[in-house]
């Protein structure tokens, strides 16, 4: 049972986050989604932060199948495998290794027959890790576009519309390369709504927007957008024939939220799930959630305490002019929440990215308590100034309240939890 102290609340929220992450561990869930074993070859391809662990889980599940193939994951996210090759590349901005991995994966698909099976292991982060530029683009062009996307405040769906258009492997092109073999995709969703087109920019599913004019997004990316990319985004593209995909979601943000909710119930706390697809500016979300928490404290609405407000999805941080500090969307959300709560008694919060990395930092997220602002002021720190400078990581680091898990080797997007004791 929850004991109501600061340490008790922090322990409860940290354990809850761990339960959510474990629910998306490929070693626990992948085997139940495997198809019938093939008559011919079984070629494994994949990309994402969970790709290496998914490959290892597949090897364990199918010890009697002669597996071959290649997956690519983020630097530092590899695990030992016996039969499937694991490569590493950069994320969130691709590098030369990202392009080389994409070419290596396509080469694995040559010479297949209808008796063969291609298993595609796809998870969040796969878009940057499979960076094969479309005709007329260079890798440097793609790197510039990725940086502009990350700074633009664009939502994940708009980001993936751009990435699909500028790629020679995403937007269903990997599926076309696998023909005539049977293709089955096993995916871990890290996107609001679990849209297969958005998970790693949909390398194995048909893209119905392939011929759309994306000029609205070029204006958002600004004058530094490479001209070759601008032409591809604004010129009509030939559309391929639609095709069906055998696409199996083995872990999703909703599943992780339900695991977190189960953890809360066991501690005697009522969970209230607010949705797995919340988007928008991180600091605005913090203000909104602070208002809900105050309503629970003062009026018992939308439900009485003890209550755990749970939400998932992916907020954004729009940098704007000026050099930003350090931090990701989860720490920015939490700092905005803390500033808006103004030390409200009995309200604690934790938010983190389930892959263990909030943006580009070494923390998954952070923890907030009623004494967060007072402790910061006692150290001569101004939380509002840190928020204005997008420097939330630095503040929570100084307070000792960062959530450091290390790479979790899975990714079902963010978990935001507000405990009203």
TrEMBL record:
<protein>
    <submittedName>
        <fullName>Hydroxypyruvate reductase</fullName>
    </submittedName>
</protein>
<feature type="domain" description="MOFRL-associated">
    <location>
        <begin position="13"/>
        <end position="233"/>
    </location>
</feature>
<dbReference type="GO" id="GO:0005737">
    <property type="term" value="C:cytoplasm"/>
</dbReference>
<dbReference type="InterPro" id="IPR038614">
    <property type="entry name" value="GK_N_sf"/>
</dbReference>
<dbReference type="InterPro" id="IPR025286">
    <property type="entry name" value="MOFRL_assoc_dom"/>
</dbReference>
<keyword id="KW-0670">Pyruvate</keyword>
<dbReference type="GO" id="GO:0008887">
    <property type="term" value="F:glycerate kinase activity"/>
</dbReference>
<dbReference type="InterPro" id="IPR037035">
    <property type="entry name" value="GK-like_C_sf"/>
</dbReference>
<dbReference type="Pfam" id="PF05161">
    <property type="entry name" value="MOFRL"/>
</dbReference>
<feature type="domain" description="MOFRL">
    <location>
        <begin position="308"/>
        <end position="414"/>
    </location>
</feature>
<dbReference type="InterPro" id="IPR039760">
    <property type="entry name" value="MOFRL_protein"/>
</dbReference>
<dbReference type="InterPro" id="IPR007835">
    <property type="entry name" value="MOFRL"/>
</dbReference>
<dbReference type="Pfam" id="PF13660">
    <property type="entry name" value="DUF4147"/>
</dbReference>
